[in-house]
Write a structure and sequence with these properties.
Number of domains: 2
CATH superfamily of the largest domain: NAD(P)-binding Rossmann-like Domain
Radius of gyration: 19 Å
Number of strands: 13
Structural class: alpha/beta
CATH class of the largest domain: Alpha Beta
CATH architecture of the largest domain: 3-Layer(aba) Sandwich
Organism: Enterococcus asini
Number of helices: 10
InterPro entries: Epimerase_deHydtase, NAD(P)-bd_dom_sf
Bound molecules: nicotinamide-adenine-dinucleotide, uridine-diphosphate-N-acetylglucosamine
Protein name: NAD-dependent epimerase/dehydratase family protein
Helix content: 25-40%
Largest sheet: 7 strands, parallel
Order of helices and strands: EHEEHEHHEHEEHEEEHEEHEHH
Oligomer: single chain
CATH topology of the largest domain: Rossmann fold
Strand order of the largest sheet: 3-2-1-4-5-6-11
Strand content: 15-25%
Distance between the termini: 37 Å
Shape: globular
Family: Belongs to the NAD(P)-dependent epimerase/dehydratase family.
């Protein structure tokens, strides 16, 4: 099969690409390397890597007219909620306008497509007290990131309904695993935490900044489980035109994550506290009944996932 993975040098995209290549599929990756790294791709010889922005209309047209894809996974985005609060206009260009353009190009030029899978987010639910979040829960996007994710997700589903572009969307909760870039202040919290632990182990005296008091709750899901969910959603017939939460149904607060990591590493990470970030969601956990109906069952607890990740990174 032929796949296009946008954002394929990033965290989720590179893990997906590496798995697809291992299964013998052909993969084209487009990534501007703003957060991704070419080194995340295990077998570059077997991937057609294109460095460029999804906002470049000419480039996207050339890719979507040159190849006929069986599957498109759209993962490229400004992936940080906090970054979108700093840069709402740039976020909108990447996280919405580029998606609309890609869907329109697919509508006009892709004849063989079996599925377009859009990476949406749990952020669309906002901070509404109704928990766990079901796909039918109220949508209260609190940031440009969340507004754009919801709008792009709806656009993908509307292209399915109006133009027969086969599309599904996944609302990822908080994903962690190898290849998550810890270098930006806006990186995912687990990647930043692990970076701080390893640097302390190497003798650097570096403190982790916790925004808030650590009581914020997330549904953390390990990348292996996410890849399983992505395959199920992309290959199932009943997922066509549907949206799926991708989480574990387990709540973990940041203090618990840090406690588990202290246990795994065998020392207490030095922490400094700052005010909670504006636009931050306090509590988020998924109901995954819909995903389970496709045959999904998460296999890793947070402790198991974190242990595998620490093993992978080496101490
Ligand atoms: P990531 O930042 O590692 O991956 C995104 C990739 O897109 C990066 O490699 C980046 O360089 C690339 N990119 C950014 N702007 C681009 C542009 N204009 N043109 C081309 N490439 C561009 O983030 P991730 O965690 O792998 O997230 C993947 C997708 O999943 C994103 O859409 C994100 O919003 C969504 N998501 C992630 C999580 C999570 O917990 N990681 C949760 C919900 C949704
Ligand atoms: C994350 C994803 C986002 C996704 C959302 C879905 C990233 C960068 N963000 O956002 O793409 O749509 O899940 O639920 O992958 N924190 C600290 N110190 C730090 C960094 C973060 O205390 O150095 C705190 C944050 O303030 C927040 C929590 O940790 O309360 C989680 O932050 P983050 O990893 O950025 O995740 P989300 O904002 O939930």
């Amino acid at each position: 099969m032929k796949y296009l993975v946008t954002g394929g040098a990033g965290f989720i995209g590179s893990n997906l690409t590496n798995m697809l290549v291992k299964k013998g599929h052909e993969v084209v990756v487009i990534d501007d390397l703003s957060m991704g790294k070419v080194e995340n791709l295990n077998d570059l010889g077997k991937v057609e890597f294109i460095k460029g922005s999804i906002t470049n209309k000419e480039l996207m047209k050339s890719i979507l007219t040159k190849y006929q894809f069986d599957y498109v996974f759209h993962l490229a985005a400004v992936a940080s909620v906090a970054d979108s609060v700093e840069r709402p206009v740039e976020t909108h260009e990447v996280n919405y306008n580029a998606v609309l353009n890609i869907l329109d190009l697919i509508r006009k030029h892709q004849r063989n497509l079996k599925r377009f899978v859009f990476a949406s987010s749990a952020a669309v639910y906002g901070d509404d007290p109704e928990l766990p979040k079901k796909e039918t829960s109220s949508i209260k996007p609190m940031t440009q990131y969340a507004v754009d994710k919801f709008a792009a997700e709806r656009t993908a589903i509307n292209f399915n309904n109006l133009y027969n572009v086969p599309a599904s969307a996944v609302r990822f909760f908080n994903v962690y695993g190898p290849n998550q870039n810890p270098e930006s202040p806006y990186s995912g919290v687990i990647s930043i935490l692990l970076d701080r632990y390893t640097r302390n182990l190497k003798g650097e005296n570096i403190v982790f900044t916790l925004f808030g008091d650590g009581s914020q709750v997330r549904d953390f899901i390990f990348i292996e489980d996410v890849l399983h969910a992505l395959l199920l959603v992309s290959e199932s017939e009943i997922s066509l035109g549907q949206v799926f939460n991708v989480g574990t149904e387990n709540e973990t607060d940041l203090n618990q994550v840090i406690m588990e990591l202290n246990e795994i590493y065998g020392f207490d990470l030095p922490i400094t506290y700052e005010a909670a970030r504006v636009g931050d969601i306090h509590r988020s956990v998924a109901d995954i009944s819909s995903l389970k109906s496709l045959g999904f069952m998460p296999e890793n607890t947070v402790f198991q996932g974190l242990s595998k990740l620490v093993e992978f990174l080496g101490r």
